[in-house]
Design goal:
This protein has five helices and no strands.
Length: 80
């Protein structure tokens, strides 16, 4: 069941949101809903549809700072 929610935002932000929603072929409500859905604990159904190895790795890098250069260094050390 869908329920209405009222958001108060600056007019400029509302125009940007509507423009981006149109570009994506969605409504602003859909985009806001997707954003809220992405917050917090991962959806159990989404985790359950991942391969077991991938699901077991969720959250393992939380709090770690990994960048592209570290990954490239690791690969060059491993394969060169």
């Amino acid at each position: 069941m869908n329920t209405k929610i009222t958001l108060r935002m600056d007019e400029t932000l509302i125009k940007k949101a509507k423009s981006e929603a149109g570009r994506r072929g969605k409504s602003v409500s859909q985009m806001v809903g997707e954003f809220f859905n992405s917050l917090g604990v991962p959806d159990r159904e989404a985790v359950n549809c991942l391969p077991p190895v991938t699901a077991s790795l969720l959250g393992t890098l939380e709090g770690h700072s990994i960048d592209e250069s570290a990954h490239k260094k690791h690969l060059s050390e491993k394969y060169l």
